[in-house]
Amino acid sequence: MSILRKKLNDFEDILNAEEIDLVSLKKLCFHGIPDEGGLRPLCWKLLLNYLPTTRASWSETLTRKRELYRTFIEDLIVMPGEANNDGERIDVTFHDHPLNLNPESKWQTYFKDNEVLLQIDKDVRRLCPDISFFQQGTEYPCQAIVNTNGAKRLHHRVQQTILRSANVERKGLGVTKIAVSVRKAAEDYAPLAEGGEAHWEVLERILFIYAKLNPGQGYVQGMNEIVGPIYHAFACDPDYRWREQAEADTFFCFTNLMGEIRDFFIKSLDEAEFGINSMMIKLNEQVKSNDYEVWLRLHQQELCSQYYSFRWLTLLLSQEFPLPDVMRIWDSLFADENRFSFLIHICCAMILLLRDRLLAGDFASNVKLLQNFPPMDIQIVLSKAAALAGKTLNSP
């Protein structure tokens, strides 16, 4: 029996049980989930606490959650001037109108929502430009969009502007300006014709609804990099019954994941126990304890970890590696018993694997090197990280 076949059998034995042994599943997933058989999307749904461990309750849970998501779309995507219950257009002279200052005005909500939507729209149009997936049309466009002849398509509500971004800069809440490019809007993903939806439009709706349901946090640039790989995994499920519900399932898995890493995106929580500053301090200490010479070199150059690891940690390395490698990394992160402590080990491994180049480089070259991590076999990185964590990583 081949190693792959044995691994597939191990996953199937756990996943076919009436009661999923989550501890055993996490141990398997930590070493990487095979790409075959739709295992990754199913395992991620379990690891992110979307599916219960009792298989008999899956159907009820999925039906209830997916119906709830459809309700969110209907209730939260506000379209002022819609027809009333009798099918007649609302007369704005007697009812709500664009100049109505009442906080309960649909128009006021609409204009406020568009401020958030503008940033979301910019971000999802440039997600993973190295692959064509997000520009392609989904097989299952949202029925709420189709049934309104496209009236609820969110991208209609914002105008495209010049998109500018730099390295890591932070203003207000969360991550801002994390990409490294200056691009014109015309070069970004274009919407499909009416009746169709591109995958980036689906992500736009997921993030918009998330922002509406979490007003204390809202949308923060970078969340698009977190939701993208989850949706990609679910929307590529070989089983059409799962693939058809990729949007709703992604929304709840993304929401659960954000519940665990939300401190990274809220500036007021930077100093909290699990805030981003605490994570960077832990990384710095781990580099120091594992390779004092490298740590001293960076320290003498005043090359602060904020210059590079802020993005690494906040976005779970989603911008540092190709999408297939990101998904392999997330297998281990989602399976981590200590929730993302392994992320520190991966980041430390990345630095240590650049040891010779960092010791030989000056400040400018080292900043560039760390901000643009060079191509590297992800298995080498993960094996090094596992060794730092006192674990052994099985070969794929």
Q: Can you give a write-up of this model?
A:
This protein has helices spanning 3-15, 22-30, 39-47, 58-76, 106-124, 143-146, 199-213, 223-235, 240-243, 246-261, 276-290, 292-300, 309-314, 323-335, 341-352, 355-360, 363-371, 378-388, and strands at residues 163-165, 181-183. By secondary structure, the chain is an all-alpha fold. A two-stranded antiparallel ribbon has the order 1-2. Helix 2 (22-30) runs antiparallel to helix 14, helix 7 (199-213) crosses helix 10 and helix 11 (276-290) crosses helix 12. The protein starts with a helix and ends in an 8-residue tail after the last helix.
Average pLDDT number: 85
Shape: globular
Strand segment count: 2
* Biggest beta-sheet profile: 2 strands, antiparallel
Spatial strand arrangement across the major sheet? 1-2
- Work out the radius of gyration: 23 Å
Distance between the termini: 15 Å
Order of helices and strands: HHHHHHEEHHHHHHHHHHHH
> Would you tell me the structural class of the helices and strands?
mainly alpha
Which regions are unreliable across 5 or more consecutive residues at pLDDT < 50?
83-94, 160-186
Count of helical segments?
18
Summarize the amount of helix as a percent range.
40-55%
Strand content: under 5%
